[in-house]
Every structure is written in C-alpha cells, then in structure tokens.
TrEMBL record:
Classification lineage: Bacteria, Candidatus Roizmaniibacteriota
The protein's name in its UniProt record: Glycosyl transferase family 1 domain-containing protein
Domain Glycosyl transferase family, first and last residues per copy: 185-342
Organism: Candidatus Roizmanbacteria bacterium CG2_30_33_16
UniProt KW keywords: Transferase
Coiled-coil region: none
Molecular function as annotated in GO: glycosyltransferase activity
Residues of the Glycosyltransferase subfamily 4-like N-terminal domain: 17-169
Length: 370
C-alpha cells in the first residue's frame, strides 16, 4: 500500500499547532515505513532540512503551484499520476477531486463560533473547503470529542465516519537559559505563563485583568505571554498600557522549543484562558515539565486536562483571580496537581497518535476494496 500525504503544514520554519501535528505524524510514518506501507509526501516546495529524511519507502514529491494548490495543482497531478492507494490530509483541506479514498483530520471548528477572527478569504476556505473534505472523506479523524461533536453539529455526519484520536505531546528538552536572549529578557521574579496565539477567542484580556488584580497583593509577580500575533490583537496591548503593566507583562512573540522549555520549567503555573480550543496542546507540554496548569472550563480543555488542572469560568475574572491566588499560596495543592499531571500525560503520546492514525488509514483503504 502506498499512502499519499499532504506535508505542507510541516514544511514551515515556525511550527505551532497543526504544523507540529503534521511533523510528528511524518516522523512516525518515516519510522514505520516498509515495503508493505510506503509513503509519498506531497509538498509545494523543497522539504526543509529538519523534515524526516527520505528512504526507500518514504519519499517526497514536489508539486509546484499557487494558493490553489490543494484545489487544482495537486488534484491534477494525482489524476495523471495514479501511484498512491489512499490520501491522508492532516489539516482540514483535501484535494478537490482525487482518484483514491481520502482520510482527513479536523482540528477544530472555531471558524463557526468566532468567524470575526478570520480573514474573509480564510473563513471562506475553512467553511467551504472543509465541507468538501468531510463530505468526500472515507474517514475523518477528530483530535478531541469536542471536535467530533462540532463536526456532527455543523456537518451532520454519521457517527461511524468520525473517529477521535488525541494529539500526542513531546517533552521539550531543557537548555541553559541565556539572559541576553532578546525575546526573553525576563528577570528572576516569579511569573505566570500563557502560551498561544494572540487573538480574541484565546481570552488573553481576561488573563491580563485577573493578573492586574493578583499583582496588587503579590507585587513581584510578572506575566509572560508567549505566542505569535494572530488576529484582532491590538486590544491586548492597549489594555496593558491602560493598566500600566508595561514593566511586568512580557510579550515574547514566537519562541523556540528551547525557550519554551525554559518558560514551562520556571513558571509558577501555565494559564490557558481560552473560550474555545480543539485540543489544547500547551496543557500537556506544561505537565511534562511539572508546571501546574490553570485552565478555563470550556470546549476540549477539561477533556485533555482531566483531573490534573485547576479550572475556572472563562467569563468570570474573579474566578480566575481566586484560582491563581489559590495555586500560588497553597503548596500542598500545587504538589498534588503535579502528581496528577505525571499520571495524566501517560495517556498521550505521538507514537500512540501515529499508530492509531495509520490504523484508520489502512482500514479505510481495506474497506474501500470490499
């Protein structure tokens, strides 16, 4: 069997979210490739040097094209070069027409809940191209039960067509921290940590307001916000200025794995205040470094964090203030959470994610032969 894979999400320099997911699956596919299970990874451009190296059963195929690559250029190539048995799309979009069965992964449907956070052209593609993908797919992978529920809600799919496979996690190696690193010129003061894109549904505004209250009783406390700018983020920076927090709230922008490891390892806790998440990978990353987690009780986050997080109502600033103060002042509760984290992260791994994903792809192929 030869499996075609869209590898473009992994072929980027700054990987977050779906890009990490795609890379980890490509690494797993490379490790498990053999004469019976071969892979052709389709890319618009030459593979970055940190992508898995080709071998006899794991190859890259460059198909040049524009922004309509997945809708025109790749389908055209697949039509005239019928050398795969099934196609796997790891990020919502699959070829508009394809001579073989398709398996697609859907990560979240935030674009239905928060359409204003997306550019019009991106919103159109997410709503319409995703609809095409899930309609034509032989099998759909959802990264959480929350995403599966949303797929049924917005696309009215048969239950048997959607399988839940959780993302894995990988502990980021710790490296000595260089204080002259421009993006992380932080002090040795205690700090709270947020990791994620800056956009409204991430609810960073609520976090900053809660931090402002807590800081009145813990003056040395700081807040580090690690993540790229997304959409409609100006309000976040304006609020920091209005509250006079410029000297204690740090915006790092994108951080490397080494920098992120340092942050998890040294933060008093990670706070994930999101109103909606399809999965919530920072929860697992923080847990791998024994970093306590305070998470909003919304969407998939309780599903991923289990009993190893403190939860709060994302629409209630006072609730978040209470949870932060509780965690910072109760060492016993903090230690108990860390112990629970060690058990929780055992339930997630990229190897398990890869194994289950490959099994679904193989089953979809076999079922198509019947």
């Amino acid at each position: 069997m030869i499996i075609g894979v869209d590898g473009n999400e992994a072929n980027v320099n700054e990987r977050v979210g779906v890009s990490v997911y795609t890379l980890k699956l490509l690494e797993y596919f490379k490790r498990t490739s053999d004469k019976n299970t071969q892979f052709i990874v389709y890319l618009r451009e030459s593979p970055n040097t940190d992508l898995p190296v080709e071998n006899k059963y794991f190859k890259y195929k460059i198909v040049r094209g524009s922004h309509f690559w997945i809708r025109f250029f790749l389908p055209l190539h697949l039509f005239f070069n019928r050398n795969i048995n099934i196609f796997f799309a790891p990020a919502h979009y699959s070829p508009s027409f394809c001579p073989v069965p398709i398996v697609v992964t859907i990560h979240d449907l935030a674009y239905y809940y928060y359409p204003n956070e997306f550019l019009k052209k991106d919103l159109y593609k997410l709503q319409n191209w995703t609809k095409t993908s899930v309609t034509k797919a032989k099998q759909i992978i959802a990264v959480s039960k929350t995403t599966k529920k949303d797929l049924h809600k917005f696309y009215s799919l048969n239950d048997s067509k959607v399988q839940v496979i959780y993302n894995g996690y990988e502990k980021k190696h710790s490296f000595p921290f260089l204080k002259n690193t421009a993006k992380l010129s932080v002090t040795n003061k205690p700090f709270l940590l947020y990791v994620g894109t800056l956009q409204p549904r991430k609810n960073v505004i609520t976090l900053i307001k809660a931090f402002n209250v807590v800081k009145k009783t813990i003056p040395d406390l700081e807040l580090i916000i690690a993540g790229k700018k997304g959409w409609l983020f100006n309000e976040i920076f304006t609020l920091v200025e209005e509250l006079g927090l410029e000297d204690c709230v740090y915006f790092t922008g994108f951080v490397t794995d080494q920098q992120l490891a340092y942050l998890y390892q040294n933060a008093r806790c990670l706070i994930l205040p999101s109103l909606y998440e399809g999965f919530g990978l920072p929860i697992l990353e923080a847990m791998s470094f024994s970093c306590p987690v305070i998470s909003s009780f919304s969407a998939s986050l309780p599903e991923i964090g289990g009993n190893a997080c403190l939860y709060f109502d994302p629409n209630n600033i006072d609730d978040l203030v209470e949870k932060i103060q509780q965690l910072l002042t109760n060492q016993q509760q903090c230690s108990e959470l860390i112990q629970k984290e060690k058990l929780r992260i055992r339930e997630f791994s990229w190897s398990r994610c890869g194994t289950q994903t490959l099994e679904i792809i193989k089953n979809a192929y076999q079922n198509n032969l019947q």
